[in-house]
Amino acid sequence: MKDDQNITPPVLEDSTHCKISRKKILVVDDEKELVRLVSFHLGIAGYDVISANSGISVLEICKKEKPNLVILDLLLPRISGVDVCRRLKNDPFTANIPVIMLTALAELGDKLKGFDAGADDYVTKPFSPRELMVRVKRVLGRCSAPKSQIGTIILGDARICLADLTVKYQDKEIYLTEKEKLILRLLLHNPGRVFTHEEILDNVWGQDNIVEYGNIDVHIRHLREKIENNPEQPKFIRTIKGQGYLLEAE
């Protein structure tokens, strides 16, 4: 099998699929059958698919094809998926290409390594193709997320400066604690992605993680009080029941 190949998606007979923009997705995995399975479902969903079975040529493919999304296995020959992701995110030409990791490594430590390398989402094998398609759609939806104006993100009546995370709500400057800033930065840099309590704990508190989960909820509540029009019915910092929190932009 060649290192990369074009996958011809199935013909879409349902007229409802005609409205789906044909975005290009790169699937990287050394399991031929898995590549075929994922490619089939992506084709049905209306995406164009290219593939690679190792991490060596991913950077070159991404620069040449500029896919809208990469679905990346971690356990690749010669170079790991974590290293591939890190190289993609560190290259200015490919840094904005979102990455979904699709792997059999399900331990929390593996997930954190993936997210630390810059992954936008993490799906473990065995997986539901339907769930994967939902995650693909959600990650691709980030392109229509926060409106940015010269380093400023606008969320309703709140204007957030990306450089120092200062917040103005209805033109009045709002004070944020350091932990609130770190949580807000995490959510802003990953719009549409759900963060569990454990992930917020590791990203914000790090080694100094002597904190109860309830304290995270308190910080989230305070953030909502500072940037939401109605903190009791938040529009931007949303709770996903049984999972965690995400930032959903207008």
Q: How many helices in DSSP terms? A: 8
The spatial strand order of the largest sheet comes to: 1-3-2-4-5-6
Low-pLDDT stretches? 1-5, 7-21
Our measurement of the CA-to-CA distance between the termini, rounded to an integer number of angstroms, reads 44 Å
Going by helix content, strand content and strand pairing, the class is alpha/beta
Mean model confidence by pLDDT: 83
- Shape descriptor reads elongated
* Fraction of residues in helix: 25-40%
Domains, number: 2
Tally the beta strands.
13
Roughly how many Å is the radius of gyration? 19 Å
CATH class of the largest domain: Alpha Beta
Query: How much β-strand is present in the residues?
Result: 15-25%
CATH-derived topology of the largest domain: Rossmann fold
CATH superfamily of the largest domain: Response regulator
* CATH architecture level-2 label of the largest domain: 3-Layer(aba) Sandwich
Specify the biggest β-sheet.
Answer: 6 strands, mixed
In terms of quaternary structure, what is this? single chain
Describe the structure.
There is one protein chain. Helices cover 35% and strands 20% of the residues. With 250 residues, the protein is of the alpha/beta class. The protein folds into 2 domains: 4-143, Response regulator (Rossmann fold, 3-Layer(aba) Sandwich), CATH 3.40.50; 145-247, Arc Repressor Mutant, subunit A. The strands form 3 sheets. The protein has a 6-stranded mixed beta sheet, with helices on both faces. It has a 5-stranded antiparallel beta sheet with strand order 7-8-9-10-11, with no helix packed on it. Helix 6 crosses helix 7. The longest helix has 15 residues, at 213-227.
